[in-house]
Amino acid sequence: MVRTMSLLRALLGTARPVRNAPQLADGLPPDHAVLLDAPDERLAPALVAAALGDHEPAAKLLAATRGAAEWESRDRYVKRLAAFAHSRDEWLTGWLAATPHDPDALLVRAEVAVRRAWQSPARAERLRELAPLVDTAAQAAPRDPVPWRLALDHARGTGATHAAFETLWEQALRRAAHHYGCHAAALKYLATQRRDAHRECFDFAEQAAADALPGSLIRALPVRAALAQLLAQGAAPVAGERVDAAADLAVELSGRYAIADPWPAEVRNVLAYVLVERERWVAALDQFRLIGPCATSFPWSSVSDDPLGRFLDARHGVRLRIASDVPVRGRAGRGRFRGHYA
């Protein structure tokens, strides 16, 4: 992590690439057009209404995802609504007062509470106190896997035993065997078990990806395992070939979606980070083009308090690094890149 960010800072001071960088801008939106965690067209009206104290659009949105079993979208919307309620919860308080047994309101309330507890110095103790809230959310919507994703996050924070975690994992799988959010939560739990857990994380992620359908975000689970390994301090490294294979699988997945599609945006941001770490500049630039204006806090917030600034720095650094390999006259060194990235 430190090595890559220092490298990018050095790249920003390189004089020669500045001359060639403009020709690489095709397909990249300007810095001012890039938005961090921009909501999609369904979530945006709910957030605007919540800012005005109106919970109805959020209630209708989550009810629709629950009724249609849109579990991935539901999980994302719950997280985003909870993040908003973390600092402005009047609309959520009003929602709970109006319909105290609404399963969607109960789920958002539990998500907010768990988020707040994670920031406490007494995290484990605070989280244990919240177990009834998580249980209530799960009981209110028996078919919904999202409360079980939250339960998996909760269990990680309390230091739950393997046996306790596996019980929750089984409940999640019964409701949605290929739910990306639950798989990501399980991966994060595995990564916390011991300092050298990264090979186990890769084993889990690779098997899940192999079992997933083409186009499923679970196909990007190995690149999340790669990210966790790259961010870890003092951990035994996983073979670079395994990291590259994870990135290649995520590249194939990313290519199935349209440019600037918000659905795979976080996956693409994770992939771009890993490709930068691996110094795969051309592949990284391709992902920045596919990301378009859809920057996400994760993973950049893992290395900076200014995730949007870090995203833009990384994007600019990749362009400059490629430009430094472009001859001042003639075509770019295509043979070099083709041999490395084929």
Description:
This protein is an all-alpha fold and 342 residues long. 66% of the residues lie in helices and 1% in strands. The protein has 20 helices and two strands. It has helices at 2-12, 16-20, 43-51, 56-67, 71-85, 90-98, 103-118, 123-129, 131-140, 146-158, 162-175, 180-191, 198-211, 221-231, 240-254, 265-277, 281-291, 297-300, 307-323, 334-341, and strands at residues 35-36, 294-295. The protein has a two-stranded parallel ribbon. Helix 7 packs antiparallel against helix 8 (123-129) and helix 17 (281-291) crosses helix 19. It is globular. The two termini are 26 Å apart. The model is unreliable at 1-19 and 328-342 (pLDDT under 50).
Cα-atom radius of gyration: 21 Å
Percent of sequence in beta strands:
under 5%
Number of H- or I-type helical stretches: 20
Helix content: 55-70%
Number of strands: 2
Biggest sheet: strands side by side, in what order?
Answer: 1-2
On the 0 to 100 scale, the average pLDDT is: 88
Provide the low-confidence segments as ranges.
1-19, 328-342
Order of helices and strands: HHEHHHHHHHHHHHHHHHEHHH
Taken from the alpha-carbon principal axes, the silhouette is globular
Judged by helices, strands and strand pairing, the structural class is: mainly alpha
Distance separating the two termini? 26 Å
Quick one: biggest sheet? 2 strands, parallel
